[in-house]
């Protein structure tokens, strides 16, 4: 799967602030670029029965997935949740899968994801969630990570 | 109770630091509260204005009223409309039927004053 580069700039530091660079993994078939304001979505907000208010501007949703032991009602398969978030206007969706390592198996290669869906975990995901927790408004830019070409070894 | 972290507010059955309440104690409604960029779950005995409660076996949720409705009993029964709309038969309309007039104070379609 293609890797994603996620550059995060705190709105209070714009325009001069140096972005924080993090990494994630694109869900197959959704790799691409996106930019927007970071907005948290509660896992239950991505169910058919609930509607998140329409955000006014470009936003990127971040969803912290809980460990299965927490028995959060699943209401929809993860792929449908990702699609629902995009249909509600998200420019991209980031899933923090740190506590739900099997989430990636619920997100197979798909051509039905019209915009980027990225899986993040561990330190990179925690950095992002800490910003959310402190309600520090931030802009996020997602791009495909360019891998350095591996030159053949010459003697 | 497993999954209940110290950060749990009253009413939560399970919760986490980042998402707040994930499930509520019996009879309470889970409301997804937006505060800036954060959206956390909170457990309430009833839903705030602008939302209505829906009970189901696995969870009770608060769902938003229609955009033109300020306060509703359910999706199809509004109780008070937004400014510029008028309540008629439980629905919010931009104008009233012939036999009625629009009352801006009550935001309702009301009978015409007898002449």
From TrEMBL, chain B:
Subcellular location: Secreted
R-spondin Fu-CRD domain location: 10-109
Family, as annotated: Belongs to the R-spondin family.
Protein name: R-spondin 3
Positions spanned in the full protein: 52 to 166 of 352
């Amino acid at each position: 799967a293609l890797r994603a580069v996620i550059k995060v700039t705190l709105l209070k530091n714009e325009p001069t602030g140096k972005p924080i660079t993090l990494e994630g993994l694109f869900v197959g078939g959704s790799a691409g670029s996106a930019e927007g304001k970071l907005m948290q979505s509660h896992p239950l907000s991505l169910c058919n029965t609930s509607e998140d208010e329409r955000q006014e501007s470009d936003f990127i949703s971040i969803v912290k997935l809980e460990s299965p032991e927490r028995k959060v009602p699943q209401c929809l398969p993860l792929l449908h949740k990702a699609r629902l978030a995009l249909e509600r206007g998200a420019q991209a969706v980031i899933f923090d899968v740190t506590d739900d390592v099997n989430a990636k198996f619920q997100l197979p290669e798909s051509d039905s994801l019209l915009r980027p869906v990225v899986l993040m975990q561990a330190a990179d995901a925690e950095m992002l969630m800490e910003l959310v927790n402190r309600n520090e408004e931030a802009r996020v830019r997602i791009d495909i990570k360019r891998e350095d070409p591996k030159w053949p070894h010459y003697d | 109770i497993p999954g209940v972290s110290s950060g749990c507010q009253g009413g939560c059955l399970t919760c986490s630091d980042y998402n707040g309440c994930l499930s509520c104690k019996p009879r309470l409604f889970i409301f997804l509260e937006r505060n800036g960029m954060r959206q956390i779950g909170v457990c309430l005995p009833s839903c705030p204005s602008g939302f209505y409660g829906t009970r189901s076996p696995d969870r009770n949720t608060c769902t938003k009223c229609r955009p033109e409705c300020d306060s509703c009993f359910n999706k199809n029964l509004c109780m008070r409309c937004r400014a510029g709309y008028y309540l008629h038969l439980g629905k919010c309309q931009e104008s009233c039927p012939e036999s009625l007039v629009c009352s801006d104070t009550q935001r309702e379609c009301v009978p015409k004053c007898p002449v």
